[in-house]
Structures are given as C-alpha cells and as structure tokens.
Description:
The complex is a heterodimer. Chain A is of the alpha+beta class. Chain A folds into three domains: 10-201, Aldehyde oxidase/xanthine dehydrogenase, molybdopterin binding domain (Aldehyde Oxidoreductase, domain 4, 2-Layer Sandwich); 215-286 and 345-420, Aldehyde Oxidoreductase, domain 4 (2-Layer Sandwich), CATH 3.30.365; 307-323 and 432-716, Aldehyde Oxidoreductase, domain 4 (2-Layer Sandwich), CATH 3.30.365.10.
Amino acid sequence: xxxxxxxxxxxxxxxxxxxxxxxxxxxxxxxxxxxxxxxxxxxxxxxxxxxxxxxxxxxxxxxxxxxxxxxxxxxxxxxxxxxxxxxxxxxxxxxxxxxxxxxxxxxxxxxxxxxxxxxxxxxxxxxxxxxxxxxxxxxxxxxxxxxxxxxxxxxxxxxxxxxxxxxxxxxxxxxxxxxxxxxxxxxxxxxxxxxxxxxxxxxxxxxxxxxxxxxxxxxxxxxxxxxxxxxxxxxxxxxxxxxxxxxxxxxxxxxxxxxxxxxxxxxxxxxxxxxxxxxxxxxxxxxxxxxxxxxxxxxxxxxxxxxxxxxxxxxxxxxxxxxxxxxxxxxxxxxxxxxxxxxxxxxxxxxxxxxxxxxxxxxxxxxxxxxxxxxxxxxxxxxxxxxxxxxxxxxxxxxxxxxxxxxxxxxxxxxxxxxxxxxxxxxxxxxxxxxxxxxxxxxxxxxxxxxxxxxxxxxxxxxxxxxxxxxxxxxxxxxxxxxxxxxxxxxxxxxxxxxxxxxxxxxxxxxxxxxxxxxxxxxxxxxxxxxxxxxxxxxxxxxxxxxxxxxxxxxxxxxxxxxxxxxxxxxxxxxxxxxxxxxxxxxxxxxxxxxxxxxxxxxxxxxxxxxxxxxxxxxxxxxxxxxxxxxxxxxxxxxxxxxxxxxxxxxxxxxxxxxxxxxxxxxxxxxxxxxxxxxxxxxxxxxxxxxxxxxxxxxxxxxxxxxxxxxxxxxxxxx
Amino acid sequence: xxxxxxxxxxxxxxxxxxxxxxxxxxxxxxxxxxxxxxxxxxxxxxxxxxxxxxxxxxxxxxxxxxxxxxxxxxxxxxxxxxxxxxxxxxxxxxxxxxxxxxxxxxxxxxxxxxxxxxxxxxxxxxxxxxxxxxxxxxxxxxxxxxxxxxxx
Lengths: 719, 152
C-alpha cells in the first residue's frame, strides 16, 4: 500500500563527488544545461523538477541533509531530514541538518505557510533518500561482483548475504559515479524506524545553550542598527520631520526618511531606541481614522444591507426558510489580533553595487527577494536570502515589509544594517488578523433536519471572510453563502489558519445552537450530516472534504472523551470539529463547576493528519494550537481609537500564560494516509469546543471574542 | 558614557556604554552574548531573564549602572557544556517549538530550582508565569521543570 516509486528522470540528478568530503551528493539539476523549460513541457517528467531535497553522504560516516523550508517552530527542520534519513536507512544520530538558503533553481516552495510543507515535500524527501540508498547498494554490488538483490541495508551499512559489509561513507565516492536509478521502491510503512517516533528538535542544543540562531542574533562587523518610526495611526501620513535632535544623540549615524517612515540609524540598539524618542515628526490624515466603535457600526450596517457578493448558492434557501418549522439565527464577531511572535520583526540587509545580501527571519524568502529586487530595481539574481530560524511567525512573516525596510535603509546609507522593530512597533504596526462578523441562519423541518443554511460574513480587509466550499456545503440541500467587505486603512494579513481561526469556532458553536433547537445530541447531529454529505468539488474536480475522515475523527474524539457515557456531576462537555489545511481535528472541551465557578479542565483532541512523521513535533503542534487558540479566544484583541491601536505591548495585549492552560490529551487517527500539515489545523475548532462546553455548564453562549468580555467573572482557571 | 566592569558567567567584561543602557543590550550588542533575548522591553514576557546573584531578573529593564559587583549568569554560563539539569530536561522533553523564549524560560526554571529544589505545581506556575511562550509550549515547560527537579 505504501510502496511507491521514484518518478523523476536520471538527468535530474546533479552528481558531484568533489563536494563535501568526496561524498555522494544528490540534488537535482535544473541549472544543468538550461533544459528546464523543455523538460517541464514533458508530461512524463512532471513532478521531476519539483524534486527539492538533497543530501550528502560524507566519507566520515555522517550524512548532511539540507532542509530547504524555513523553520518557524513548526518543526520541519527536524521532520524533513527524518523523512530523508528513513528512506536512506541511516543512523539518525549521524545526520547533520543544515538550513539551505533560498535557491529557486534547486528547490521549490521554500515557504513556511498554509501547513503545506509536509504534504508538498513528503514524497520528494522519501525519493531523495531512497534513490541515494539504491546508489550505495549498486556501488557495493559492483565492488563485490554481486547482484543488488542479495544486498540489504541497515543504519548506514550495506550488507551482503556472505557477511561482507561496507558503510555508506566507504561507498560514497563510488556511488557518486553511478547514474541515479529510477523506479526505486520506497519503504513500506511497517518498516519505518524513524518516521512516527519521538524525535527531538535538531536545534535543541543551540536553543538551550543560547547560541545565535535567530535573525535578532545576527551581527556582523561594521553593521549598523536601525529603527523605523511608522505613522502612529492607520490613516495618517508623514507631513514633516525634524531629525536634528535625534541625529545629535550619542551613537547616531543618520536619520533618513522613506515613504511614510523615518529611520534612525546608529551604532547600537539602545542608542537608536533613545534617539528615536526625541525624533520630531508631524503627521496628517490621509484616510479615515477609524475607531473600534466605527467598526461595530460598520458591521451592523453591512450586516443589515451591505451589497453582498454571493459566494455559494445551492438550491433555494428562501423557500427552505419559508417552509421551515423552526429557524435558528445568531451573529458572531471577532476583533483584530496581533501575531505577536516572541521574536520581534527584524532583518539584515547589505545593499552593495554588485550584490544585495539579505539575512533574517522570513516565511517567504522567494517573495522577499522578488520584492527587494523590485524595490531596488535590480535583477533578482543579484539578491541572496539566508533564512535564520524564526522566533515564531503565525503568518506575520509571510509579509516581508521589515526586510524591505532594511534594504531601503541600507541602500540609502550605503552600509550594512539590521532593522529591529520594538514590541510596540510590532503590535501597532498592523498586518493584523482581520476583524469580522458573521450571521448564521438555519432552517429546520419538523423532524429537526437542517433544510436550509445561510451564512453572511462581513469582513474588514479580509479578502473573503467566508469559506464557501467547506462543510456544511454538501451536507445541507439549500445553502447560501455571502460576503461583504469593508475596506479600511488598517492593514491585515494571514494569521495562523486565516479566516477559519474564528469562523470555524463560530460555525461549530452555531451548530450547537442548531442541535439544541432540533433536540439532537450535537455529536449525533454532526454524524448524521456527514453520513448524508456529498461534498462539493473543487476546481480540480476533487471533493473539498472527505466525510469518512470527518466521521472517523468525530468517533475517535467521542470515544476518548467519553462523550456518550454518563458524566460526573458538575462536568460539561463541548464538541467541535473542523477540516482545514488538509487535516481533520475534533476537540472536546471539558468544563467543571467548583464552588459556583467554572473551569476549563481538559481538552481532548482527535487528529487525522495521516501518518505522523515526528510524534514529538506533532504533539507540540496540536497542544500548542490548543493553547494558542484558547488564549486568543479568551483574551486577544487589538482595539482602535482614531486609527491608533490601543494595545501596544504585553501589559495590555494579554497572552495566555502557564497557569491558565487546561490539560490536553491528543489521539491520532491511524489510517496510513500520506501526511498532511499540523501547523494550523488544531487551532480553528478549539474556540467552538470551549464555547460549547461553557454553554453547557453555565447556559451562556460566547459568540463574540474575546470571551473574557462576555464571561462576567464566572470562569476560573482560564481567566 | 561610562565604563562598567561586569562579572558575567565567572568572567570579567568591560563595556563602555551609557549608564541607562539595559543589561540586555549590553549583553547582546556590546559583549556578543546573544542568548538572552529581547521580547518586550517592559519586563512583561521574560525572554530576557538572567540571574543576578542567582536570582531571576529581567535584564531588559535593568540599567547596567545598577548591576555593580553582582554576579550575572546568562544562558551561556548556566553550565559549561549545556548540561545543567534544566537544560538536559528541556532537551529530553523536547520543549522548544520556535525556541525564542526558551533561554528565558530555562533561566527562570533554574532560579526556581536553586531556591526550591522540589516545587509543587503551584510553585512552578508562580515562578514561570512571567515567561510568555507564544507557541504555547507550557505543558512541556512544566513537565521539564519537574524532570529537572528529579535530576538535581
């Protein structure tokens, strides 16, 4: 079932025995002879040129595995090399992992986003390892004059039935002379030794001993430090500035301006920070200076009569609602959120006439290079990007604005410079999770079946506040999904599980409201819906979700949480499930009542992400997403007064802390399907499970985030 | 500007900086000790935690002029080979996700275990609640503190 074959052609491999200790170096050759365009046109080779992992077997018995994708805490720098080493059949403790720089010739999709690194790279990584293993076996077969069928491998050693053996390191030079084979079989899942085990992060030692790893830690002789003063409110533009006082401060080299910004450049971070405080800048309105009260009014207006875009229309909801025995309707709202990764924005740039060097934390190195080349009006080939480990991203580093600032400043002052944002710069600097409001309506027949479903989403700079092809589309006969958008000067961007980070919880809470109105158990009702679901097809003609996987995941969560069993007095459960980024996650929240107060005690998770690559990393992502989802649902909000964000640092922007976490229990669906990502999928359903459990416990529906505003001090443990 | 002689990780360092420069930036910008992290600048996140005579302090709000002869320990000096019981526990439990806050977490945990080698859950929470982890690795942080306590 798991056996697959390599599909790329022989000429995709770059062989170079001179590289790294005379070892075997596998990569793929796109530069090679400029055959790229011709080859891509050949359908038989499709996918071949996406092959993006490479490795070297070193003569000293170690292997170096290059990890092409940026590491943002999602764990690919460990799980990618694990996957290569598995098929290579190599001793994990002898693997060295190296972060590859941006190289759009050798690699594709060097992106940390969309929880897509794993599904995109799974087969490519395995093929890289399997092909190298095969070449090492062929080298041994040639040396010993035997057939490769009589050979086996074991942890970096090729063995012959006669008892002869050689390490990969001893065979590497010979193997590198061979033509890479095609149709190399991959391991069966039952033979995995590394995949599925608990493997610690490859950077752990550096992290726990404080070695330089992050962009913030990058220093270079002669480098200057810069901070940028952005307009203090969205809608303001720079009118004038006086940098004389700042420039006169100790350690300051220059004060420069570009676009709406003023940058202070100096010898050290603290000197620049102090000088920026005495910078005089005047601003003037260039657009509306919106306050949160304006947003509430805009939501109300656009919900009532804004011109909506029809995103999906199945059947006739008007008729369904006209004939309904019962109608359920409710509105849900979420605020703007900051990404607030622990490492504030920063980037190093050295713009020289012949080349531009960019080094720092980015989820999108290729896009960063493109935008910097465009900004400086130079060819992309002159720009290099090195990715540092990122101190979190959550979507914020999908935008390279801070890297562009570094390039712009370096270009102006003609010196290497590291731009650092303070926490206040980060929290007031925009690219927020957009605020949105939703109205859900359900029509029920006499038996409590959902005959019509309407969703109207109003977003502020969301792009599209709804996900029209998701469930319950396909499970309800008459569906109408609409969206209305308000354009605002407040900048927004993707935030961990864009849109669904709130929409999922709202939908799952609404379904609980529907189940209650229908007199059905919420889990039973969901199972009924999935059993009758015929998912819509996407643009490629494939179903947008798999009802069977939904059902299995629901059943696992129900079983592990004891959903259908008798509960202890004072214990209330809330259910939620969502499919996003190709993975299915069901969660059951358990709220207990003690002395008149309510505590979220535990969250059960059932996860279908296919095969788990690194058990440690997978658990980290799921548990972390529960904590992240809970913290932001409970406390997170950026509010505005005349365009100015009112929360500027962690003293007013509340993040969840260690004493506020529930117990989390995680179970994976074991189905052997190729793995999908986990950076995001466990976050969207969480707020729904929590809201449903609190409703069950105390009879209060949390429809608006942050929940802390709705809780009236009756919750404990999470407040 | 003034010259300060600092005792950091058992060594003497000299820094020529303004008196109000926070110890954090002296460590990072002037002494090349970048393990101590900047996260908020207002002592609200704990990423900059170091030890001052063995006690956990937030170096982002500690002016270098007030350090005087106190012994400073940073993550780089917590142990010679990175094998302090807290560091070993952090690795074994595989705490880090992004890893940025972990130096501060480890320093807070090490200071706790120094004064209380057998903390209960509440004492762990109290000592660690000043350290934010945006990835939400709090469960493993708690587990690692408990494991480290066993190793001490």
